[in-house]
Amino acid sequence: MLVAGICFLFSDILDYHVVALLLLVTVSLAAVSFDIRPVLLAAALSALIWDIFFIPPRFTYVVKKAEDLVLLAMYFIIALFSAVLTARIRGMESLARQQEEKTREVTLYNTILNSLSHELRTPIATIIGATDNLQENDDKLSAANRVKLLQEIGGAAFRLNQQVENLLNISRLESGFLQPRKDWTDIGELIHHILRQFDPSASLHRIEKQIGPNLPLFRLDKGMLEQVLYNLVNNALVHTPPGSLVFVYASHTDNGLKLVVEDNGPGFPETAIPRVFDKFYRLKDTGITGTGLGLSIVKGFTEAMGGTVMLENRPSGGARFIVLLPADSSPSIIEHE
């Protein structure tokens, strides 16, 4: 009706055949934007408007010329066909998108299932094997072998617990109801606690820390922050060769807390940096298995606390993760060795 109104204002200089083309284009554009029913209404309405207001004699249903009557009939048929065909094309595109999404979901499901089956089966198999060995050969095992088997059970149980924790954490993030529980947290003590969970002799890495001087207490969700820092350190240990240095730094900013976890390993391909925080994303051709949930949990927990996390490659080599968390700080100052 808007297009017809504009055409009517210029009807003295516009031939009514041109008006028909303009209305037909308008119906075609409507077919791209709306469902079939309003488009069919627009097609019928445009034909009626063209007949009454533009085909001579104007302001009447009468069409005196046979060729105008044929044109009117053809216009109505073409408008209807345009609406129907466009609606069908949109329907086919929608179906194709749904099939593509379903295929992608199936592929993702298989990837997750294969990853989880390996990540969960390996520590379970280690626990079962070591337990059977202890039960069946207890009298034949030396004290050193018995301690080694117990260490294998403990390590496998710890890895299994971490995989379960990751699955639980990602489900909490997916639920959309995750709310941080803020409390005063000693960052230095938290870093000491997390780093003690890693056995330097197991990965042959060096882990160093630097806690900013006079670092105050911060009002944060300790559990979330602990998981963020643990996942970042673990990611650095997993993706760097033995002998690499992993460095953890904490400092006080004007707005809150800054945490940095960096290493001197190979770093990340530039094309992978935008995707490392995606769920189930893993670097290709690294030979390292995993579920690809660790860094997505880092991003989810950091954003749940109102912060941001960034990744960059160090100029001298290696990766650097920077976590910025807005938080209230205590007036009291704590010295850390």
Automatic annotation (TrEMBL):
PANTHER family in the cross-refs: SENSOR PROTEIN KDPD
Keyword line: ATP-binding, Kinase, Membrane, Nucleotide-binding, Phosphoprotein, Transferase, Transmembrane, Transmembrane helix, Two-component regulatory system
Enzyme class: transferase
Biological source species: Flavihumibacter stibioxidans
Listed name of the protein: histidine kinase
Annotated InterPro entries: HATPase_C_sf, HATPase_dom, His_kinase_dom, HisK_dim/P_dom, HisK_dim/P_sf, Histidine_kinase_KdpD, KdpD_sf, KdpD_TM
Membrane topology: Multi-pass membrane protein
Residues annotated as domain Histidine kinase: 115-329
GO molecular function: kinase activity
Membrane spanning residue stretches: 13-32, 39-57, 69-89
